[in-house]
Amino acid sequence: MEPILLAYLGIAVMVALSGIGSAFGVTICGNAAVGALKKNSTATGSYIALSALPSSQGLYGFVGYVLLSTFLTPELSYFGAAAIFGAGLGLGFVAYFSAIRQAQVCANGIAAIGNGNDVFGTTMVLAVFPELYAILALLVLILISGSIA
Amino acid sequence: MIKSMKKYTFLIYHNDYERFLLSIRDLGVLHVEEKKLDEVDSPSLKNALSLAERITNTQLLLSKYIDPDQTATAVEKGSLERGKEVVDRVEQVQKEIENIQQQLPIVQKEIDQVNPWGNFDFSSIERLKEAGYKLDFFICPQKDFDESWKKQYEVVVVNKVGVTLYFVIVSKVEEVLQLNLDAVQLGQKSLHTLQLAKKALEDKKIAFEAELQKMAKEDKISLELYKKKNSSELEFSQVILSGEKKVENKLILLKGWLPVEQEAALNKFLDKECLYYDAALPTPEDNVPIQLKNTAFTKLFEPITKMFSLPNYTELDPTPFLAPFFMLFFGLCMGDGGYGILIFLASWYFKKRVSDDKKSLCQLGQYLGIMTIVVGILTGSFFGIAFDSVTWGWLAGVKEYFVTQKNYGAMFGGYHPLMVFAIVIGVVQILFGMCLSAAKVTKQHGFAYAKSIIAWVVLIITAVVYFGMDKLGVVIPEFVNYFFYFIFAVAGCFIYLFNTPGKNIIVNIATGLWNTYNMATGLLGDSLSYIRLFALGLTGSILGGVFNNVAFDLTASLPIVPRFLLVLFILLFGHIINFGLCMISAFVHPLRLTFVEFYKNAEFEGGGKAYKPFKKQK
């Protein structure tokens, strides 16, 4: 297998999984928001804000591509390709699960706001905890890109 | 900034209590410490709450009957009596409409049952019975119909619907029919009667709905007046019940708060009254109501602070500190000068046309638009056009100055300059938050408790400078090295040995180690979180560029007129979608960075309740 093919596989896994995770995540929150709107239509802003939080992981996948794109040349070595593949796998899987779990926290928060509880701020803070691991995976990717350079 | 408050305690003679409260309401400056509604057991309060709910439900119901094409013709003055009539009448009408909606399916079912038999008079069946004959009604699928029945009995096929036969058998009253079918039992009403009944119900429903529409159009002001009166009475009842009865119910103890600047007005009134009162400064245990006081610019960002929580009285108002960062983050996330121009123009246009309470939002929009234009100019991005890549003559002299990967990538080690800037601004906000945390701790507990936080800030800044200089290849003289080591050592002492005044050294060291772990994990994660500012800005610009390319490349082979129209359509469609997505992201992500990363490092506690003076409702 050519090194560049291995590298692009890693990029594909990273972008695809992080994007799919975010897509699932915002959908889970959107569904919760529609249900909450029936009970409490005055908190639309809070629902939208919480629904947008799981979109972060897709952004991290994109940032990962931007950081690694400079290495994607036909002259890429197996060392570089393996590093890109590994970094892409790591960020892709972590971002996928992190987005879905974050969305579940946000969806519960949205449901609580729909029931009249004032939990917007606390939900936003709690939703960050699953995202921390996607950030760590991005950090690993940054460190790996540094080692390739 | 949080306005200074003073606590007032009054002892009022029970006979003067209501009169005193009416005077306080006229003054309109005192925030009365009210008991929670579920702690109060009062029938009049419960009635007022129930009435408030009824009025709100009435308004909600009538809002569905407002025709947006018709202008409101609300009776100019309205009246309380009319408001009460409307609430009672709307509930009545609603019940009637619900009854009709329950009856209609029943009548329709009866119609569907009788319909295949056609319109006939049931009295004819009675006359037949008197003559000694009966009429039995039968329904069966055509395949089950036995032709021999026609020979056995007087069968008349009335109707055929699909594959179902409707037939009657005329027979003598005493005759027993030998059919393997059950006769259908019809009601006593003819089809015509049922249809008339259905029409009557529908007409009644239309009439009720027309009445609701009329009330929605004409009685809005009366309802508002009635709502305000009830709300005012409810508030008054709540305040009355907030007083604590003392000395065998002869005296009422009432507590309240007001801003120090309003003290003179209250004291002038109290000096004329015959009652005992005490004015004191708040204590740390008090839950002081919060009124923010900010400049015209910072005031625009108060809705953002209130979205999370008002600060409590012992800490700093975060609004002036989050305002410039929020503006910058918004601009970075939008990242396109063309979209900035649109935001600015739209805000400027609507500012003259919206109600007074929405003008501040438009003003905020103008500032955010200006920041987006600035970022767009710096990065050379307008409606998805990357100015550093075009070959326009008038840009030739400035192209190399736009902050892009092409122009400055090499300077930042191959990284996009905006990505580096996003992380740097994140670290700046985090360190700024830590400084605010030190100021807050100093205000609450004294400077001794803030030393370790300041030491952390100094340590991080010194480490960044020291390792940054090393990375940039700056040769550091030996004595400067020792100076840096000295700063590290002093900072280390404060972090590990003086972080918890009054506790022994082991507690201090353990706390220092715990803080080090939190700092190492937290600072890293928090800084990287700001990378989203770069990602969102870049995504928006690239997406805009993609729509531009699609519009022009896809239509390259078309004649000029259709090409122009199609290009315009694609550009409008694409940029509207991109603009909408960017706007949502540009609001939400800076909000999240403010509420999570900034507030966490600033150790923002929140939990403040708003200052709401007891006054007459306008």
Count of β-strands of chain B = 10
Query: What is the typical, i.e. mean, pLDDT of chain A?
Result: 90
Give the biggest sheet of chain A.
Answer: none
Please tell me what the overall shape of chain B is: extended
Helix content of chain B: 55-70%
| Oligomeric state, counting identical vs distinct chains | heterodimer
Distance between the termini of chain B: 28 Å
Proportion in β-strands of chain A = under 5%
- Largest sheet of chain B, described in full? 5 strands, antiparallel
Q: Helix fraction of chain A?
A: over 70%
Low-confidence parts of chain B: none
Strand content of chain B: 5-15%
The overall pLDDT average of chain B reads 87
What spatial form of chain A do the alpha-carbon principal axes imply? Answer: elongated
Largest chain interface and its two residue counts? A-B, 28 and 30 residues
Summarize the SSE layout with pairings.
The complex is a heterodimer of chains A (about 150) and B (about 625).
Chain A: H1 3-39, H2 44-52, H3 56-68, H4 78-114, H5 120-148
Helix pairs in contact in A: 1-2, 1-3, 1-4, 2-4, 3-4, 3-5, 4-5
Chain B: E1 5-13, H1 17-27, E2 31-32, H2 43-63, H3 80-114, H4 122-130, E3 133-141, H5 148-152, E4 154-161, E5 164-172, H6 191-218, H7 220-242, E6 244-246, E7 251-259, H8 263-270, E8 276-280, H9 296-299, H10 302-308, H11 319-334, H12 337-351, H13 356-379, E9 381-382, E10 385-386, H14 405-408, H15 417-445, H16 451-471, H17 478-497, H18 505-529, H19 531-554, H20 560-601
Antiparallel strand pairs in B: 1-7, 1-8, 2-7, 3-5, 4-5, 6-7, 9-10
